[in-house]
Amino acid sequence: MAGMKQFKILVTHPEIPSVAIRKLEERCELVICPEVPYPSREQILSKISTDFDGILWLSKHRMDKEVLDLAGPKLKVVATVAVGYDNIEVVEAKKRGIKVGNTPGVLDAAVAEIAVCLLLEVARRVPEGRNCILEGKWEAVRPQWLLGKDLQGSTVGIVGLGNIGQAIAKRLLPFGIEKLIYSGHKRKPEGDKLGGIFVIFDELLKQSDFIVVACPLTEETRHLFNAKAFAEMKPSAILVNIARGDVIDQEALISALQTGKIWGAALDVMTPEPLPSDHPLTKLKNCVLAPHLGSATEKTRAAMAMLAVDNILAALDGSEMPAPL
Ligand code: GLV
Fold it and tell me: How many domains does the chain have?
């Protein structure tokens, strides 16, 4: 017997991995926003009504008071398919007794791989070299051509030694780095275990040859990297951001890269996303860009969607969510 579906769920994106959708569909009636490449905020809002028990939120748009007001008192859970929740008004939801979950852990390795990939790309000028080939400007016979920076023997500073920061550190240590330092709220046992030294942010700026941003975007970290921070960094330093674009004051970064205040940057995240193709960042040879690919592997995206579905089902069953916020 087909049976009555127990719950009604809004899914805010049509391209959720099918394994997760199938699991949700076993017990829930789904309303799926159909728009590709992604629904606008208005398109999502137009689908929300007061008969949903849960929302699977895969969107960079804000999940805020307006969304919650439209959904009304029946809504029990919002599961975002992301680890970062700067776009989710968690406090507002919880105030209304609505549970909120995210997807930590399952994407640590994939994001760390992108961090290492981007760090090496900018340090060894790989995209710049590729462009030289395409433009017929291969000058490899010149011994000083396209020289990069060594990761071996360097000081690496990680801003935010959470799960992702630790995954990045673990992967960078075998490159023979000289020193691992990190900043954040406090010294961590996990940092000690990695041989990392906790330093204040200013010290991290001064000492690091490579800085990897792996902290959440909060009011405290918004524009943490501003003109003053760039002025404190080594002119030979490289900045890698896999967290959120707004942790960096992008105007200040562009100016730091143009004037040689720092040597290079690699960004998987930026402002806005998608970045216009003629944006000043795209004109900088010493800036490597990736279109927010951190968690973009088949396995990782499926695991994230599954965890979000498990968050929803657990909340609706009244049991503990695997990844509550
Ligand atoms: C991606 O940026 C995420 O927060 O999962």
Answer: 2
Q: Are 134 and 254 in a shared domain?
A: yes
Is 321 inside any structural domain?
no
Same domain, 84 and 99: yes
Instruction: Kindly state whether residues 68 and 153 are assigned to the same domain.
Output: no
When pLDDT is cut at 50, 70 and 90, the band that residue 192 belongs to is: very high
Nearest CA to ligand 1 atom 5: 82
The response to whether residue 104 sits with its C-beta less than 6 Å from ligand 1 reads no
Cβ of residue 213 lying under 6 Å from some atom of ligand 1: no
Rounding to the nearest 10 degrees, give the CA dihedral for residues 216, 218, 220, 222. 90
Q: Does the CB atom of residue 269 touch ligand 1 within 6 A?
A: no
Residues 15 and 91 in one domain: yes
305 CA to middle of ligand 1, Å? 12
User: Residue 73 sits in which domain range?
Assistant: 2-104+298-316
Tokens representing residue 94 in the block: 């919880």
Q: Which residue CA neighbors atom 3 of ligand 1 most closely?
A: 82
Strands (E), the chain: 7-11, 28-32, 54-57, 77-80, 99-101, 155-159, 179-183, 197-198, 210-213, 238-241, 264-267, 287-289
Find the angle CA(178)-CA(288)-CA(84) to the nearest 5 degrees.
80
Separation of 303 CA from ligand 1 center, angstroms? Answer: 13
Is 45 in contact with 67 (CB distance < 8 Å)?
yes
In tens, the pLDDT along 52-90 reads: 999 999 999 999 999 999 999 999 999 999 999 999 999
Ligand 1 in contact with 83 (CB < 6 A)?
yes
Task: Write down the pTM of the prediction.
Answer: 0.96
Asked if residue 242 has its Cβ within 6 Å of ligand 1, the reply is no
Give the amino acid at 32: I
Instruction: Say if residue 3's pLDDT is above 90.
Output: no
**Quick check: is 292 catalytic?**
yes
The label of the residue with tokens 């008071």 reads 65
| CA 295–ligand 1 middle distance (angstroms) | 7
